Amino acid sequence: MQRTIGEAAKAAGVSVSRLRAIANGALGVSLSRWRLWQALQTALQHLAEGDSVAIAAFAAGFSDQAHLTRSMKVTLGLTPGAVLAGVGLREGS
């Protein structure tokens, strides 16, 4: 289960703004951007294992498969089907 940034800050005993600053310094990108990359990585792993886009989206914490597809298109410039077709995991996607 994914925590919200507020929950993570509370668990760490720091404010949300302090957690964002710490993460930005440690990761070199914003906490929100890092979380998106982690979610996309999780979704891509599920897709590579043969799960549907809907299952991959749910497992990665996206609200639905359209949310995953939009996020992947904006971030990577490709849809889930195009990514999988490009690496030869699914034909005709």
What's the architecture in CATH terms? Orthogonal Bundle
Remind me, CATH topology? Arc Repressor Mutant, subunit A
> Count the helices. How many?
6
What structural class do the secondary elements suggest? mainly alpha
Give the oligomer, counting copies of the same chain as homo and different chains as hetero: single chain
Give the rounded overall mean pLDDT.
88
The CATH superfamily turns out to be Homeodomain-like
**Total number of strands:** 0
Question: What level of helicity do the residues show?
Answer: 55-70%
Distance between the termini: 29 Å
Shape: elongated
Number of domains: 1
Unreliable stretches, pLDDT < 50, 5 or more residues?
A: none
Largest sheet: none
What is the H/E order?
A: HHHHHH
Q: Rg, please? A: 15 Å
